[in-house]
Amino acid sequence: MKRTDLTFKPSLVAIVLATTLLSACGDDNDNMPPVESTPPAAVMQTFTVTVTNLTANQPLSPVFLAAHNAETYLWKVGQPASVAIEMIAEGGDASGLEALENLTASVTGTNPILPGMSETLTLSVEESAVANISLASMLGNTNDGFTGVNSYNIAGMEVDAPIMMRRMAYDAGTEVNSEAKGTIPGPADEGEGFNEQRDDINFVHGHPGVISQYDGLADSVLMPSHRFDNPVVAIKIVRTE
């Protein structure tokens, strides 16, 4: 008996059909919307900044604290103060600083810091944006005295490795240091705060100090206790995470 071959070769029609089906499947995949990947969560760094008042009788206005890029400075010695610095130096008003551009994050304290007392502020910043930190506060019983930290680099700080520093008093140069009644916003006078008119040398410099009525300035409302030496604040910066 002749052997029958039971192996069939695929027909041309079957090959064409299979090719068409595969092509159709490929078209379906090409037309499907791309799968969106979830961006990685931002890595945050948290810093605590403790400000201690070292003066005998100069309350500090609520502290303004900010993180920002390395090109930002709140003030420059020998140059005119910005309106934002004038506002805090003459009246303890931080709203002008809070509105500045290039701030990555900022916070302002809620209460004055009395002599010998401290306040701790917390600032959280994305790791990719960490660069420099600044703070500012008014010496309340002065015409336009202030203190602070001006664009200090905190990039690369290790966790729980505190940085300690002390800072001097500056004069905004926007209001003459008359110490006269009605010109000082602190508790020694409760007088005027910010005034947009400038009647002093109009550049930031080291504060010359307080004279007081007992040291030859007859119209002064200040007492010897309001005088101060540098430094006027101690500052502790800690990266907590």
UniProtKB/TrEMBL annotation:
Write down the species. Shewanella gaetbuli
Task: Provide this UniProt record's keywords sorted from A to Z.
Answer: Signal
What high-level taxonomic lineage is stated for the organism? Answer: Bacteria, Pseudomonadati, Pseudomonadota, Gammaproteobacteria, Alteromonadales
Can you tell which superkingdom this protein's organism belongs to? Answer: Bacteria
Gene3D superfamilies per UniProt: F-spondin domain
Name of protein = Spondin domain-containing protein
PROSITE patterns hit by this protein: PROKAR_LIPOPROTEIN
Q: Which residues form the signal peptide?
A: 1-26
Q: Which residues form the Spondin domain?
A: 60-175
